[in-house]
Amino acid sequence: MSAIIEFKNVSKHFGQLKVLDKVDLDINRGEVVVLIGPSGSGKSTLLRCINGLEMITSGDLLVDGMSVKGGNKTLREIRQEAGMVFQQFNLFPQMTALENVAFGQRHVRKMGRKAADNSAQELLEKVGLGDKSKHYPHELSGGQQQRVAIARALAIKPKVMLFDEPTSALDPELKQEVLNVMQKLAEEQMTMVVVTHEMSFAKQVGTRLIFMEHGKIAVDANPVDVIDNPPNDRMKDFLRHV
Amino acid sequence: MNIDWSIVIGFLPALLNGAKITLYITVTGLIGGIALGAVIGLMRAYGGYILNTLAFIYVEIIRGTPIVVQVMFLYFALPVLVDIRIDPMTTAILAIVINAGAYVAEIVRGAVLSISKGLTEAGRAIGLPRWKVVVYIVGPLAFRRLIPPLGNQCIVSLKDTSLFIVIGVGELTRTGQEIMAANFRAVEIWTAVAVFYLIMTGTLSLLLRIIEKRMRIL
């Protein structure tokens, strides 16, 4: 297995604040990496550095061999390799579900309208929303919106999917429909990096669990091994609270 | 006190002509002002340090001075300073462009910045170049929020044209004053002038309400 994401001594500062501290991390194709940690530990920042929504301060970060420091054009290529799903869904409110999904294909992948609409419809069916294609985001529940957002990210045919707390803004009964879609993706061998507090998802779907603390990777292990048996007190304490 | 409304009828053509000039200055001035304001507003929202500062200085100077002073400056001071002479009509239009431009810039900036940062990130995250994010995602959303304050500015600018009486442009207020000077029918003439303004601003308000109704704020 070869690494598709390579953090090489990556640091990230916001002014004086050090958010990522000399992180080294290789993520291989097909892995489902679950990132956990207390708030402010740098897990979201680590994720957002991968597609360049945050620029790294030092070190290097390669995605499919391309450096995030390679300039705007390279960055756009990286973003086409790494789809992102946000906590707040961020669907384009002036577009229907279908238009949201087709938009990236038409404007980024330069697909024709017809082909883009067809493949968008397929993707909506894949996330179980084939009948909602003409609905606007405000007409959908949070769980449905998040599934559309996943379809939108998948539409640009990424090699990696980045999830930034995808179920944190959802009511408990809506979380599961999103987690099910994510599980299906993992079963299709999609490489995934997931920031989440859903420990059952981490155990069932995750192939690797990373516990972050103070901008460093504190624990990097198999989820099943460490969730029930945390290797240190900080993680034990953290897991007691989620 | 003898008030005779029938005398207004005789002056209707003159007043109508004044209203036409008012409308002409307003419409041409606002087309320019909205275009200028859009550019300046985007400079404020997206420009780097230099563009942003330049735009900021422009907005502060214009918002900080009365429009009468601005039009006087254009008409009387500019010829002295740089030897450019412009006729009253052009001066009037230019004054609306420059003045409305500053206010529209702030309206545009506010509308653009009110669109959630998450939507911009979502656009960038699917690999869109920055300009496409502005044109396809932020733009259409900001436009909807722009309509109410923009309509307000249109009404203000229409009424501001009455101040061009100071440089002798024959718009509605000036026409009213000229008629008044000849027959001293203050009540009838100024009422008629006010009604003309109300018809124009009323139509604008109505138009805006229709546009707003057809466009959901998202």
UniProtKB/TrEMBL annotation, chain A:
Keyword ATP-binding: yes
Alphabetized GO MF terms: ABC-type amino acid transporter activity; ATP binding; ATP hydrolysis activity
Localization per Swiss-Prot or TrEMBL: Cell inner membrane
Pfam families: ABC_tran
Chain ranges of the ABC transporter domain: 5-239
Keywords, comma-separated and alphabetical: Amino-acid transport, ATP-binding, Nucleotide-binding, Transport
Domain of life: Bacteria
Leader sequence residues: none
Listed GO CC annotations: plasma membrane
InterPro entries with a match to the protein in the record: AAA+_ATPase, ABC_ATPase_HisP-typ, ABC_transporter-like_ATP-bd, ABC_transporter-like_CS, MetN_ABC_transporter-like, P-loop_NTPase
Record's bilayer topology term: Peripheral membrane protein
PANTHER family in UniProt: AMINO ACID IMPORT ATP-BINDING PROTEIN, GLUTAMINE TRANSPORT ATP-BINDING PROTEIN GLNQ
Family, as annotated: Belongs to the ABC transporter superfamily.
NCBIfam families, sorted: PRK09493.1
Protein name: Glutamine ABC transporter ATP-binding protein GlnQ
Organism per entry: Vreelandella alkaliphila
Automatic annotation (TrEMBL), chain B:
Domain ABC transmembrane type-1: 19-208
Spans traversing the lipid bilayer: 21-43, 55-78, 90-112, 133-151, 189-211
Record-level GO cellular component terms: ATP-binding cassette (ABC) transporter complex
Domain of life: Bacteria
Cell compartments where the protein resides: Cell inner membrane; Cell membrane
SUPFAM superfamilies the UniProt entry points to: MetI-like (SSF161098)
Keyword Transport set for record: yes
Signal peptide: none
UniProt keyword annotations, A-Z: Amino-acid transport, Cell membrane, Membrane, Transmembrane, Transmembrane helix, Transport
GO molecular function term, any single one: transmembrane transporter activity
PROSITE patterns, A to Z: ABC_TM1
Its membrane topology: Multi-pass membrane protein
GO biological process, one term: amino acid transport
Family under the similarity heading: Belongs to the binding-protein-dependent transport system permease family. HisMQ subfamily.
Role this protein plays: Part of the binding-protein-dependent transport system for glutamine; probably responsible for the translocation of the substrate across the membrane.
Full protein name: Glutamine ABC transporter permease GlnP
Organism field: Vreelandella alkaliphila
